Amino acid sequence: MIFKVFYQENANEVPVREKTKTLYIEAQSERDVRQKLKERNFNIEYIHPLEGAHLEYEKQNPNFSVLEI
């Protein structure tokens, strides 16, 4: 399953909406996503599973790229 992750690059800073970034990652569950990203110093705000029409919509984004870990 593909997940869309909303995060801040530095976990030590206060989250600011304008600094929120997104990435796409393939994983089995939300827990698996967190496990794969734990080595990075991200402040994960939200993890959203993508499927069906929502996934197809996201694939139309020119910045859509699934992170390989």
UniProtKB/TrEMBL annotation:
InterPro entries, A to Z: RpoY
Gene3D superfamilies found in the cross-reference section: RNAP, epsilon subunit-like
Pfam families: RpoY (PF07288)
GO molecular function: DNA binding; DNA-directed RNA polymerase activity
Catalytic activity of the protein: RNA(n) + a ribonucleoside 5'-triphosphate = RNA(n+1) + diphosphate
Keyword Mitochondrion: no
Gene Ontology BP, a term: DNA-templated transcription
EC assignment: 2.7.7.6
Entry keyword set: DNA-directed RNA polymerase, Nucleotidyltransferase, Transcription, Transferase
Domain of life the protein comes from: Bacteria
Any one GO cellular component localisation term in the record: DNA-directed RNA polymerase complex
Family: Belongs to the RNA polymerase subunit epsilon family.
Subunit organization: RNAP is composed of a core of 2 alpha, a beta and a beta' subunit. The core is associated with a delta subunit, and at least one of epsilon or omega. When a sigma factor is associated with the core the holoenzyme is formed, which can initiate transcription.
NCBIfam families named among the record's database cross-references: PRK13667.1
Protein known as: DNA-directed RNA polymerase subunit epsilon
Organism: Anoxybacteroides voinovskiense
